[in-house]
Amino acid sequence: MRWIAPLLAAAASSLMLMGCTPTAPAAPTAPEADAKAADACADGGAKLATLDMCQSDAAKLLVISGGREPELPEGCTWAVQETVMPNDGGVMLYRSASCNGVTTTLVAEGSGESVNYNYKSSAIFPMPDGIDDDMPIAELDVAGPDPKVDILGQVLLLAETENERTNCEIRAAGNDSWPADALVADLNAAAKELGGISDDEVRQACGYLGLDTGESKFWLVRQGRAFFVQQGQDESDIDARSITVVAKSADGAWAVAPTPTVPERN
After folding, report:
1. Which of 63, 120, 137, 232 is the most buried (most CB within 10 A)?
2. pLDDT single digits (tens) 191-216
3. pTM of the full structure
4. Distance from CA of residue 169 to its chain's centroid?
5. What does the domain layout of the chain look like in residue ranges?
């Protein structure tokens, strides 16, 4: 097939000799140009499909708590991502790692009392088989005005000893490496004193959903929703400080979701 190139060159020369030039591709029509401009983001990033919003604009909706920003591997950046929440039609926004053309994204699994947000893709952790059952975030349905009560009730379901079921409580985590508003389930002060337990020692308390000083596991309350977060101890591809629930307001615009109104328990 080597003769195709010389023939094309000869045809182009003939056109030049005849005073003709090859026909240029047609310019896009005004509506097409307007549509492409509407889809383009100034930052060069892709639009978020559900919000129909550029990532740079979605970033303005994030309510980022205090605390240390997780460190990313060299060459990685933060990107804003969205995951639709099945329970109330809201959308969870969060900053996630983007490395070498791969961005961490989450997909919701389940509904009702508990929803797991599993990895659909990860920029840092290998996922050879697609969606991973590892659950970096879970949402607990809140049935009362104080989410901490619901969190403790869920924790106690997996508590391993009678001492834990009697003496576990929800307290501020106080870990500089986690979001400033992170919570953990731990034994109360009286139970720790009675058991000779120091806060400085490596330990676990209150079952799987409770304190584990050897891992990065904690609870967050955001816009009245309760989230259980578990991350890598050394690296994290989700900035938990940034988890924000958004919903459409009365005028149809996306905004930070209001705290749901729930009745007092009897």
Report:
1. 137
2. 999 999 988 889 999 999 999 998 99
3. 0.81
4. 27
5. 43-251
